User: Which sequence fits this backbone?
């Protein structure tokens, strides 16, 4: 990592809380908190690649299948926004409490897609976990999940959006269909700084080495692969931050191209691991 990049990283991290499962940073005027809900390991049998021998070598690398579930909280001053809600309402509630965020104060929740590891945190038993929140979700994804009990509960609070819609002056939706029918990324911008909340563009560290490696979670693997390659190509070596639901170390950093044709993710660091 070049010196200039390191200095920039240091400047942007304003503080780190005591728990290693939380990372705070400033994005322009906004306060961003990445919250790791849990760490996990993917079953190696779920990985697919064009070359099975090469895949075996990839999977033999340390941490090749390590993963996480992260959610991202952004305080813009006028809104308190959560991006995805993770897999476990109790754990999410506990982690929000640790960083002094009351669920009733969250007024917007942006959902990348409706897999259970992204929406389960919306409900606490049979009740809304976020009684005052409006839920933003793509038209395509909502259509496919409308009948889910979770969305029935939030019925009057759902706002669907189109592809590339500016849902707020500083949040734009970017379609990344393939992982699911309406999987969507969100680009947040403040004071010239941008962060892409990319949802499930990838699931495990070895996919940085070759984006053609995928897991069987993708609804349409061919479309997902093409989207993953395009997104990584577009965001690599840019100034934009990436926030990933399944990336390690709380999931925020920047993407760099490496000489072998793959990518490297430069994580913002939690300071007390
Ligand atoms: Zn996921």
Assistant:
């Amino acid at each position: 990592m070049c010196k200039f990049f390191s200095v920039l990283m240091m400047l942007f991290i304003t503080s780190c809380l005591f728990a290693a499962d939380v990372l705070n940073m400033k994005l322009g005027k906004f306060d961003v908190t990445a919250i790791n809900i849990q760490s996990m390991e993917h079953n190696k049998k779920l990985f697919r690649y064009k070359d099975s021998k090469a895949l075996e070598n990839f999977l033999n690398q340390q941490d090749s299948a390590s993963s996480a579930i992260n959610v991202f909280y952004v305080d813009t001053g006028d809104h308190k926004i959560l991006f995805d809600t993770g897999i476990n309402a109790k754990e999410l509630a506990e982690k929000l409490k640790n960083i002094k965020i009351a669920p009733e104060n969250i007024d917007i929740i942006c959902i990348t897609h409706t897999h259970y590891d992204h929406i389960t945190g919306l409900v606490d038993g049979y009740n809304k976990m976020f009684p005052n929140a409006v839920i933003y979700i793509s038209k395509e994804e909502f259509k496919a999940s409308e009948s889910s009990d979770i969305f029935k509960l939030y019925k009057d609070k759902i706002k669907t959006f189109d592809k590339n819609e500016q849902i707020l002056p500083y949040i734009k939706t970017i379609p990344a269909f393939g992982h699911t029918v309406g999987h969507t990324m969100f680009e947040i911008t403040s004071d010239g700084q941008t962060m892409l909340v990319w949802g499930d563009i990838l699931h495990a560290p070895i996919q940085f080495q070759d984006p053609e490696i995928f897991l069987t979670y993708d609804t349409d693997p061919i479309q997902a692969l093409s989207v993953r390659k395009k997104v990584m190509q577009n965001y690599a070596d840019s100034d934009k931050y990436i926030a990933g639901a399944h990336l390690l170390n709380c999931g925020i950093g920047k993407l760099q191209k490496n000489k072998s044709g793959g990518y490297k993710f430069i994580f913002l660091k939690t300071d007390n691991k």
